[in-house]
Specification:
The complex is a heterodimer of chains A (about 675) and B (about 475). Helix content of chain A is about 25%, strand content about 25%. Chain A is built from 17 helices and 34 strands. The longest helix of chain A is centred in the N-terminal third of the chain and has 20 residues. Chain B is α/β, with parallel strands linked by helices and about 475 residues long. In chain B, the strands form three sheets. In chain B, strands 6-5-7-8-11-12 form a six-stranded mixed beta sheet, with helices on both faces. In chain B, strands 2-1-3-4 form a four-stranded parallel beta sheet, with helices on both faces. In chain B, a hairpin with a 2-residue loop joins strand 11 and strand 12. The chains are: A alpha/beta (about 675), B alpha/beta (about 475).
Amino acid sequence: MARIGVFVCHCGENIARTVRVKDVAAAARRIPGVVVSTDYKYLCSAPGQKIITDAVTEHGLTGVVVSACSPQLHEPTFRRASAQAGLNPFQCEMANIREQCSWVHPDPSEATPKATQIVASMVEKVKQSRPLRAFEVPITKRALVIGGGVAGIRTALDIANAGHSVVLVEREPSIGGNMARLSETFPTLDCSQCILTPLTVEVLRHPNIELLTYAEVEAVSGYVGNFRVRITKKPRYVSPDLCTACGDCVAACPVDVPSDFDRSLAWRKAIYIPFPQAVPTTYTLDAGRCLNARHGTASGYRVLACERCADACLRRAIDYDQKPEVVERDVGVIVAATGYQLWDAAQAPEYGYGTHPDIVDGLEFERLLSASGPTGGEVRRPSNGKPAKRVVMIQCVGSRDPRRGVAYCSRVCCMYTAKHALLYKHKVHDGQVVVFYMDIRAAGKGYEEFVNRVMEEERVLYLRGRVSQVIPRDGELLVFGADTLSGQAVQVKADLVVLATAVVPAEDGALARKLRISTDAYGFLQEAHPKLRPVETLTAGVFLAGAAQAPKDIPDTVAQASAAASKALELLSRPVLQREPTVCQVNEAVCNACFDCQRVCPYGAIERKELRNRDGQLVRRVAHVNPAMCEGCGACLVACRPQAIDLAGYSNEQIFGQLEALVPALAGAAV
Amino acid sequence: MFQQSQAAATTPAVAETATWQPQIVALICNWCTYAGADSAGTARRSYPASVRAVRVPCTGRVDPLLIVKAFEQGADGVLVSGCHPGDCHYVQGNMVARRRFTVFRALMDFLGLDNRRLHFAWISASEGAKWSRAVDEVTTAVRAAGPLRDWGRTGARRSAVRLPAVPAAPRSAPSADDQRAVGGHLQRLAATLLTEGRVSVVIGYTPGSLPAQMVPAFVTRPEDAPALGWSDRCVNNLSVYLPGAVRQWGKVALVAKRCDVNGVVGLLQESQIARDDVVVIGVACPGVQDDGGLALKCHACGGDAPPHADWTVTPGGAEPGAHPSGASGAVAADPRDALVTYLESLPAEDRWAYWQDQFSSCLRCYACRAVCPLCYCAVCVAEKNRPQWIPVNIEGKANMTWNIARALHLSGRCGGCDECARDCPADVRLDLLNHRLSREIEQRFGYRSGADPAVAPPLATFRPDDPQEFIR
């Protein structure tokens, strides 16, 4: 026979103001099976919890109903308290009489009977509750980090330094990501490559890191602690063991290709490394651009049109027959750090991006400023190579523009535009910079000071207003805009226009689907909670770092990367994983093996199990839930017509109990 | 429950007054709507004290039979709410649920339940305002509908609804010669299959004890093959015997009409039999007689040879393979469409009265279940206790729950053979319920039962852009 204890909380005045708590406790006492029912001012306080633990011991309770706030707030508290007294934590339930009763029903004559019924329904639920035990699953002590930008690098290094092995996957031929493209970083003006390359080299040399560049994640199966990841290594057609990065092949290659790394402002060869400091220092043959691509299949190169690189390579490192290689790795945790790209500014045609080479976006200007860039750091016009004496910078191109672009603020553009202006002024002392802005958002350590310095000391002209059009005319660019502070239309002549375009996700959502994590309206990877779980996802064991989650600057990216690493380490440092026992289970005697459950399970947690007799002959097949993969959503049990599946913690009997207590009680609950 | 008698005493009295508070059960998901209701509380957005929430992990956990249970227990209205599509904590639970709710809602509407009583919503954790507004609106709607007093009414018939007459059969009965020819081909084919050991049993038809009656026959020896026959009285859907026959005999040959093949496909889809287990002998059937006339299901069927057959038998002979021409097409409108449309044209309360009458005459003999090829569950939900999904007593509410459960469990699966309705001793129009839901599924999800064994059943899958105009 059930022995239930009901504990009604006043929550100070929060509940007691509109719910007559003494009446609720008295009514609960009349419910069959309730052996103790009492009220207290703050049940979550230490003396409040003691009332519960004492009652569990004294009355030998088989169930506890705490009638207080939302279970989302204090369910763990009271389950812990119940467990301390020896009761199974899943035999403690909360009746939410605050958020969903006292706070929304100001009239005590309405709130009190409703509270009574909520309590009654939870008493019926607890009567049907079974003791549940968390179970343990093993954990593979290896992490997968997807994305080799600064976020992925930092995460990988943190996990590797803690002594766990890491697989770092990067789809480009080298790691470093967008940060490797930057000239100098705000607000300290460190040279970006100077602070990044030591990290990339450390990744390469780290004994705990397996670096897979030019590789992509194909499929992810399994579950927290036990993921299996299939990774395709794209063929480089250059053997990394033989290549010494001498560059002889490059000199021999006859094909010129716009350099992605230099944002098409310079040329590279079909065989290349993205930039001289690239890690790994293995050359890559761009199969799509190589002359051999037109002859024979992509993988085959059966008829070779050109073998100049192979002839030039003394080490014989070129292998035209290399095939994509699929590797599988078992990992316990996954960190997605897939980064950002820039919004295509051609979608805002008034700025003329794409119509004139002297209209560039932020990353292109970074390359023009960079000492390793196509101009060696001299700011020259892409159209004619002449020095750019007048530069106009336009902020919020695509950002804060829900009509054509994105509604959010891209966070980094105000700062990098100020940095661009300053770096330009330092390089071109007689140059003139005009910045069109909407607002200056310089929240960050040293950021406001930096922008003020650019405005005041560097004499950069900031105009608050939008640009309506950029028109190329007579070899220069005419920028038509407004200065809303003086209320005047302005017209500025420029040699170069720099667009601070919006930051958008680099991934199109395919990876999120493979990882079974969600994305927000813009395609950024969705965190589990914006404040309390900012680096976790709703899929256990998958974490987020960097601009894949939302636009961020480098300090925030690195901070989040380390946070993701520490969350990953929290799992990796455990001997085994505890899993919630609120999972589905199949009654094999009732299962018909129609496998509709398998069709609706989003986690692939349902397997076809073979029941065999003692001679080993197959008797029949049934569905089987792998409890380590089940997340407890309950979709399978609704798909099951004979109700062979049930969900612990939300079982059919529990819900029936609740329903049966709720409805008849409703009308007659005059307390 | 301890307050039950009190409840019964007070409900009708207060119902007349303006202060009557309807009883509304809200089945809400833990991650979005429960949190949304909490945030309404945090923001102190007051709303009527009419709603009692039951927290479930996901709307995907909400079995429509739980909604039925709430009504059965006395709820005046039900609100189901979860995460917006795309926001589901379990990725897709709400989108699978959306299809189930679509079908459930169509069924309840066809039964004539006042649609002001059944509500669906997507309310996120941040939409406290939407939650309080939804409760407000749902309460107003349910209050306007009044107390639900006649869910599962028992007693005298009250409905004056008479279904319109069915149009005359679009064609005359097939000639006796043709029927004899088909019977002869079946005998020879059965003998061959059995002699060559390709099957261990042939399930077909043989003359029964009543004049012209044809009954199922299980022929296991070649010498018994002459017992087989064929006429327009071969009305049974023999695919109901398939899983059992496969278990007992191994390989089975099945004489199947075009409508029967839907059952075979359903069994294949749901892994109840393997394709190698069965040799489908498709008969180009010009229609069967039921109740003295052409069966309703046959009006729109042109008598084409069945798809998916291993052998096709026509008066001209037996040929290997399936040979549906597809050309015969519909020769007349499906009279079931007209009957469904007629019922839908009635005011909801008339439909409600009609179906209450229908269900109150149900004997719970489960003949409908016994003849259905897709009611193969070893343990039916009707026999489940702990908890008891369907009350065992033969009375209004229990009959209501059973008939809803039967219709829902066959939705998206029923092949339209109408055997359930033909065999119902109480003449409950189960065929119209099935037909209505099949039509809903075809219109909404573009799915027709029996088309392709490799396709997932429509209620075990979803599309992100499935229609959801009924969800607030």
